[in-house]
Amino acid sequence: MDDDDVSYDESLKARIKASVHYTVGKICQREESEMGVKCSKQFLAALAELTYGKCGSLASDLESFAKHAKRSTIQVEDVKLCARKNPSLAKLVAEKATDLEAETQERLSKKRRKDNKPADEDGESASDAAPSAAVASAATGATHKSKKVRQA
C-alpha cells in the first residue's frame, strides 16, 4: 500500500468514526428527552467508541460466517448466526428477516402481475399488442425519415 492509500483509509476511518459518534449522540439526545436523564460527553464518547468497536467485530464475524459457507456475500443467515447468543436479539432479527422476505415476495408478485397484463376485447393481450404498435410507429418513423431524405 502506498501513502495515498493509507491516508485515504485513515481519512475514511475517521469519517466513519465521526458518523458513528454523531448518530450515537442523536440517539442519546432522543433517549434523554424520553427518559429524563442527561448523558455526559465522556459517556457519549465511550458509547460511540464501544459501538464502533462492536460494529468492526460484527463485520469480521459476518465475513467469517459467509467465508465458512463458501460465499462472498453476507446473507441473512450470517446475521442470525451473530445474534444466536442473545435470544431477544435473535427473535428481532428473525422477525425482521421474515418481514423483509414478505416485502420482497410482494414486490415480485406485483412485478409479475404488471408484466402479465390481462387480455383486451379482441382477446389480444397488452404484451401482444405492443410489438404491433412498435412496428407501426417504426414504419411511420421510417416514412417520415424517407420524406426528409427526399427533400434534402
From TrEMBL:
Q: Which GO terms describe its cellular component?
A: FANCM-MHF complex
Q: Output compositional bias ranges, type Basic and acidic residues.
A: 96-108
| Pfam families named in the record | CENP-S
Annotated region described as Disordered, given as residue ranges: 96-152
Q: Which UniProt keywords apply?
A: DNA damage, DNA repair, DNA-binding
For this UniProt entry, the molecular function terms from Gene Ontology, in alphabetical order, are: chromatin binding; DNA binding; protein heterodimerization activity
Domain of life, per lineage: Eukaryota
Compositional bias of type Low complexity: which residue ranges? 126-143
Listed name of the protein: Centromere protein S
The UniProt similarity line reads:
Belongs to the TAF9 family. CENP-S/MHF1 subfamily.
Species of origin: Capsaspora owczarzaki (strain ATCC 30864)
GO BP field: DNA repair; replication fork processing; resolution of meiotic recombination intermediates
